[in-house]
Design goal:
Blueprint (H helix, E strand, L loop, with lengths): L3 H5 L7 H25 L5 H13 L4 E2 H7 L7 H10 L3 E5 L7 E5 L1 H11 L2 H5 L7 H15 L1
Antiparallel strand pairs: 1-3, 2-3
Length: about 150
């Protein structure tokens, strides 16, 4: 098992806190790269995939740009631009809210749902990223990450 020291060829850290922070950042970037490579097979970015999953979870209710922004994993995403790109691909539709003309409502299309279903059938590929951990270790990792942010 490669250690963080070997991965980044750094033998000394200021302390265990410093080492843990570097390890979390490095591992997060490693996971992001793996996930991005997986989604590239479907011509999607992680941010686009995130929007589609949020919209699928909202079905049949529409979502506003604000709701999407609030629920995005990547808070720095330009949600309006991402929605427009997905609209051009036929994966989402935009409509002006009938109750508030200032609000645009976004819904996932049938094509968007079908694409997510295709991705869902390949979930084992992405789940394999954490195959070195047992179910108990995964639960512990989730608990520790939640505690870290807490």
């Amino acid at each position: 098992m490669p250690t963080i020291e070997k991965e980044i060829t750094q033998n000394k850290f200021r302390n265990e806190s410093h080492k843990a922070i570097i390890n979390v950042i490095y591992t997060g970037n490693w996971l992001t790269a793996k996930h991005s490579k997986f989604l590239k097979k479907f011509d999607l970015t992680e941010q686009q995939f995130n929007i589609l999953r949020i919209l699928r979870g909202q079905r049949p209710k529409p979502a506003s740009i604000g709701l999407l922004r609030d629920r995005m994993l990547d808070k720095m995403s330009d949600v309006s631009r991402l929605v427009e790109r997905l609209r051009k691909l036929g994966l989402v539709e935009r409509e002006v809210s009938p109750t508030d003309r200032r609000t645009v409502e976004i819904v996932i299309t049938k094509l968007g749902v079908q694409l997510l279903s295709r991705i869902d059938r390949k979930n084992r590929e992405i789940d394999a990223t954490v195959q070195n951990l047992s179910e108990e270790e995964l639960q512990q990792l989730n608990t520790l990450l939640d505690k870290l942010r807490g």
